[in-house]
Amino acid sequence: MFAQLETVIQDMEKGDVSLEDSFELYNRGMTLLKKCNKAIDEVEKKVLVLDENGETHEF
């Protein structure tokens, strides 16, 4: 997803993109960004921290 998002950003930065294409790229980018954020949030909830006593605690 991150690679796809990077491609969208690169496409938007091109100077020859029409307004309609820019709007489509923006919407696709926002959808990908939401999916990326959701995936990151899910991973953060699963991460455990190991303390100095060797016990695990949720992050």
The DSSP helix count reads 2
Q: Could you tell me how far the N terminus lies from the C terminus, measured between alpha carbons in angstroms? A: 24 Å
Strand order of the largest sheet: 1-2
Number of strands: 2
Overall pLDDT: 87
Radius of gyration from the CA trace?
18 Å
* Secondary-structure element series: HHEE
Please state roughly what percent of the residues sit in beta strands, choosing from under 5%, 5-15%, 15-25%, 25-35%, 35-45% or over 45%. 5-15%
Report the biggest beta sheet as strand number plus sense, adding barrel if it closes.
2 strands, antiparallel
Percent range of helical residues: 55-70%
Low-confidence segments, ≥5 residues, pLDDT <50?
none
Shape, principal axes of CA atoms? rod-shaped
Counting helices, strands and paired strands, the structural category is mainly alpha
Q: How would you describe the overall organization of this protein?
A:
68% of the residues lie in helices and 10% in strands. It contains two helices and two strands. The chain has a two-stranded antiparallel sheet. Strand 1 (48-50) and strand 2 (56-58) form a beta hairpin. Helix 1 (2-13) packs antiparallel against helix 2. The radius of gyration is 18 Å and the shape is rod-shaped.
